[in-house]
């Protein structure tokens, strides 16, 4: 790698770090507005997309299943999540959002404002390119 390319890589990594830090700060603030921890909000957000077994939630969030059990217990006690049997395997329990949980997840997502304004300054083509580049970096680009 040339010195210029190496310097550019460092700059990009620093910018990504700044975006991630701002995202986490905004996410924690938005979660607290709904009396949730950041971890509870992330679990609720995942479940709003689809009910999941605890093990899958733990894999997606890169944490121990026992941590997820505690988080789901707290969300369940607030009426935001329920446990139900997996129709494909009755031995497995899925965590699923309640109607109130879905509303809370939607409100939480709607309150994450830090990127809306900066992304709004990009054209649709620029946002599409950014999305595709991020997907390539993560290895999730459609083939």
TrEMBL record:
Residues 9-139 form the HTH marR-type domain. Gene3D superfamilies: Winged helix-like DNA-binding domain superfamily/Winged helix DNA-binding domain. Keywords: DNA-binding, Transcription, Transcription regulation. InterPro entries: HTH_MarR-typ, MarR/SlyA-like, Tscrpt_reg_MarR-type_CS, WH-like_DNA-bd_sf, WH_DNA-bd_sf. Pfam families: MarR_2 (PF12802). One of its GO terms (molecular function) is DNA-binding transcription factor activity. GO terms for biological process: response to stress. PANTHER family: MARR FAMILY REGULATORY PROTEIN (PTHR33164:SF99), TRANSCRIPTIONAL REGULATOR, MARR FAMILY (PTHR33164). This is MarR family transcriptional regulator. It comes from Streptomyces benahoarensis.
């Amino acid at each position: 790698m040339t010195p210029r390319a190496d310097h550019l890589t460092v700059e990009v990594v620093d910018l990504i770090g700044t975006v991630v830090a701002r995202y986490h700060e905004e996410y924690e603030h938005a979660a607290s507005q709904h009396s949730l921890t950041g971890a509870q909000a992330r679990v609720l957000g995942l479940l709003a997309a689809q009910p999941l077994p605890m093990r899958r939630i733990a894999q997606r969030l890169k944490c121990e299943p026992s941590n997820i059990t505690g988080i789901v217990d707290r969300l369940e006690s607030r009426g935001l999540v329920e446990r139900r049997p997996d129709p494909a395997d009755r031995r497995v329990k899925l965590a699923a959002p309640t109607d109130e949980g879905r509303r809370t997840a939607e409100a939480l997502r709607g309150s994450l404002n830090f990127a809306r304004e900066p992304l709004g300054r990009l054209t649709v083509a620029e946002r599409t390119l950014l999305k595709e580049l991020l997907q390539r970096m993560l290895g999730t680009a459609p083939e």
